[in-house]
Design goal:
Elements (H helix, E strand, L loop, with lengths): L1 H15 L5 H16 L7 H26 L10 H27 L25
Length: about 130
């Protein structure tokens, strides 16, 4: 989550200096804040529920931004700046899925939650044993 938070923070800073699209800076900043907040060990169910809903909303905003930009593609789409914006939105949307998984695992309860300090994005609780 730290890498996702840093990358989204960098995208927010870069987009802050683009006068045409300052809203992207706010969107990337929101995603960065949600990713970095997932590193905290929050135990309040309502706070985690709110952050899960906010990360779902951010994910859908990124997908919405991607599909709004894709309609402007033309034959040489890979040569324009719109392609980079669309790729950034698409990658950010998929990154928010990992952030949402952290919040959803915390909502399952303390006995099944994967800690935010785990290095894997998708982890398995240690108390489960394999059948091999």
């Amino acid at each position: 989550m730290l890498v996702i938070g840093i990358v989204l923070s960098l995208l927010a800073v870069v987009h802050a200096f683009i006068p045409m699209l300052p809203i992207f800076s706010v969107l990337y900043g929101l995603g960065a804040a949600l990713a970095l907040l997932s590193l905290l060990n929050l135990t309040n169910v309502w706070a985690v529920r709110f952050l899960a809903i906010a990360s779902t909303g951010a994910m859908f905003l990124y997908f919405f931004g991607f599909f709004r930009l894709v309609q402007h593609f033309h034959d040489d789409w890979h040569r324009g700046g719109v392609a980079l914006e669309a790729i950034g939105m698409l990658l950010s949307a998929f990154a928010m899925i990992a952030v949402l998984s952290v919040y959803s695992s915390r909502l399952k309860g303390p006995e099944h939650a994967v800690g935010a300090t785990d290095q894997a994005i998708f982890g398995v609780p240690k108390n489960l044993k394999s059948e091999s």
